[in-house]
Structure formats: structure tokens, C-alpha cells
Amino acid sequence: MFVVIALFCVFSYGALHHVHRDCAHDYLMDKLKHEDETLVAELRQFHAIAQDAIANRHHLRMENDLLRIPIVWHVLHDGPDTNLTREAILRDMDFLNEWFSASNRYYSRRSSFFLDSIAVNEDIKIQFQLATIDLEGNPFGGIDYVFTDIAKECDENNAYFTSEGGRDIWNTAEYYNVYTCQLENNILGFSYLPGSRTHPRDGTVVDHRTVGDNFYSGSTLAHESGHWLGLPHTFTESCEDDDGIADTPNTDLPAFEYIDFRAPCPPFSEEGAYERCGNVVMVQNVMEYNFEECVSYMSKGQADVMRFFLTFPQSYRSTLPSSPALDEPECQPNCNGRSCGADGCGGSCGSCPNGQACNTNGNCQCVPNCNGRNCGSDGCGGSCGTCPNGQTCNNQNECQCVPNCNGRNCGADGCGGTCGTCPNGNVCSSSGNCVCQPDCAGKECGSNGCGGSCGTCMIGEECNNSGVCECVPNCNGRSCGSDGCGGTCGTC
């Protein structure tokens, strides 16, 4: 359940920097109740609404636009001992963004036991940037240095108030206010959960000694920023209570109370490792209290919660990603599901091979090519056309006539050519075959050259070699008189 409203984290500087965090939550909760009972009630009600909305919005991680948050650092200092260089703050900003992109120092040590529940960059996608303008809209470097007498004794009563030696909180709809100073009672930091309205302490305070420190690697600010974005601790006071996040197992104690700091970070090679309340505990979660070297990751459910509070319209944090204090967003190339075309940032997702073109979805697809073609393949599995009967598609993808001489030995082949020529005396028939051409020109008898006859001669005539009938003289038994052909058989 979401019941922690403000959270203090305690630390000790050991020789080996084996650190754990501890929270005085009950004290601050009681204090806030006395100061603003209505606010506490509203926060609880709002977080109940948030739990229900998150449970029914499984698409939250799919809405994966990068969410940017402008930070103004209020450095409360009294000189070199408590001051911070810009370099140290920039280093802590880098650490913080590593935590919120799943690339932090010990992320590689994450347990394989919870691999399906551990958030990756695509789940979180939250980025912190130094604010670029101040409250008046003037150019600003993101760091507000405040020389003050409370630098070594700041707490929730003075850090947020100029009148008490701190700095009044900047517009929380446009800035994430982070204060640094030396906290009393060895406290590491504290922060407040988000709601539907803000309040004068709606920011985070961290001890200046954790900022830019390579040992902490941003884990302190990451933990407190988790609270500021709606994350409770993963442990509660009993096994029956939980943090309201489905993928963080219930546990009744912070990890450092049952893990020896000399023990190695749990590999979870066995299911029973670090078990409480009948669960294997997520002791490496950034919202746990564990020794620094074992703090490794956030869960996917926690990522959903944080993104919810940055996008849900009724959340007071939802205006931050569009704050005027952000610089122009760095273009994020997007080639998801794309192999070609523009990446949205002036670059390219790739180019297509010859014969392919990039479609509107950013994928290469075959381009049909029928230039100079009227048949055959278009190169993409389709066709440039079909040829009419009597034609076929040649190697140049052009329809061409197919000569047809089947059963023919002469005459046209149907394509402007010939099936052959006939020898002299023959002609080509309509069926494409050579046939003999009878020749009786100047002839009245005899052969027509094709096995037929040009005619027959009358009795008394015979056909000569020229195919002409001529009279045959007849003097048989005659010695004189007419031979029947205009001649004579003799004279007496």
C-alpha cells in the first residue's frame, strides 16, 4: 500500500563504505499529519487511484516516449566543506541517468532469478536534465548556489525555506528541486511522494557528500527520485502489507537487517536465497535498504509507476516533461521495425539494394520493372503481361510471333516467313503442301505433267511431242490416192 509520504534515509561512512539506508518514515508521517491532514488524506486517495489506473493500463510501457525532467540544484553551502563543483553535479547527473536507463554501475550484477521482472531501458526511458532557464525565464545553468549558515545542519524544516536559511522551492510544475547540504543525524536524504497538488516541501534533499561520489554512483539520488516519482520502499512492517507493485515480492524487513555486509551479492542460484514472508526477496532493488554493492536495479512495475506519475493528467508531475525549463529535445533516431528510409533525425535507417525501394513503413520492397517489357516477369513475382495466341515471350520480355510449320512444307509460317518453297511445276496449297500444277498451255493432248492428260486426239490423229494432235497418214493397202492427211499415197 502507498502509505509513506516523506522518507528519510540514514547512512554511515564506514572504512569500506558498506552502507545501508534507513528511514524515519513514521516520524515524518506523523509530522505531516499535524501540519496538513488534508494533504495526507489526498495523497493516500490519489495513490489508490494511481494503483487502480496502473493495474488497468498494461500499455504503459508501450507508450515509450522519452520523458525528460528539468532539475534545479539548490546547493546550500557555507564554503568549500559543503560546496559542490559543477563537475561533481554533472557526474551525479550522469549517474542518475544511468539508473534511469538501466545502465548503472552494478546493473550487470542483477539476479537472473528476477530477470523477467527487472526493468530495462525501454521500460523506464526517463531522463534528467539541468534546467536551462530560471524562474524569470533568463538563461540558467541549472545550479543555484546559496551561501547559508544552515549548510551543516539542514533538515526538512529549513532547507525548503529562504526565511530559514534555505531556498524557497521553485515552481514544482516546471522544476524538479534537488537540495544539497550536510544533513543532521547522518541522514542520506529525503523526499516526498507525488500527488494531485504540490506543497512547500515537494522536492528532494540529499547529503552533499553523496553527490558525484563514485562509490554511491548516484544510488542515493536515484532512491530519493524513486520516492519523488511515486515509489515506496519494497518492504513494509508486516508480511501482509505490500508496496502496491505486483512484481516486487512482499517482505517485512529491509535487507540489511538479515544480510551480512560481508556476504556476496546474491546470485540466486537457489530459489531459497534470501527468503522472507514466503517469498524470495528482491534485495537488489534500488528501493530496498541494502549494502551499496548489491543495489542494482528497478522493476518493470516500478517503471510503470514512475511513468504513470509523469503522464497521468491529474498528477502534479505530469507537466514536467513539457516544462519550458528543458532545452530542445535531442532527436532520438527511431528505426524500430524499419530497415530503410529516414530515422526521424536527419539520418537513415538503411538503404535498399538495387531493384528495391523503401515503402512508407520503412521496409525495402521489390519494385516491379516493366520498362520496355510487355510480357514475362516484372522481377517481383508478378507479370508484365501475357502474349496473345501464336506469340511467345522472348528473353527480352517482348512478345514475338511463333512460326508454325507443323504439317506444312511451303507457304507462310504465320510470322512473315515461309515454311519452304515448291519445286518447279508445283504450287503451295492452302494447307501448306506442295502440289503438282497441271500444265496444258499450248497443248491439246498428252501429259499435263502431273499424271493427268491435256486431252485425247481423234481417230486418225496422234499426239506429238509438243502436245498437239496431228493427222497420221494412212496408206496401209494403198499405193495411190489420198493418205487422209492432205497428202498422197502415190501416183499411178
UniProtKB/TrEMBL annotation:
One of its GO terms (molecular function) is metal ion binding. It holds the Pfam family Peptidase_M43. Gene3D superfamilies: Collagenase (Catalytic Domain) (3.40.390.10). Residues 167-310 form the Peptidase M43 pregnancy-associated plasma-A domain. Residues 1-17 form the signal peptide. GO terms for biological process: proteolysis. Keywords: Disulfide bond, Hydrolase, Metal-binding, Metalloprotease, Protease, Signal, Zinc. SUPFAM superfamilies: Metalloproteases ('zincins'), catalytic domain (SSF55486). Transmembrane segments: none annotated. It comes from the Eukaryota. Belongs to the peptidase M43B family. This is Peptidase M43 pregnancy-associated plasma-A domain-containing protein. It comes from Vannella robusta. The lineage of its organism: Eukaryota, Amoebozoa, Discosea, Flabellinia, Vannellidae.
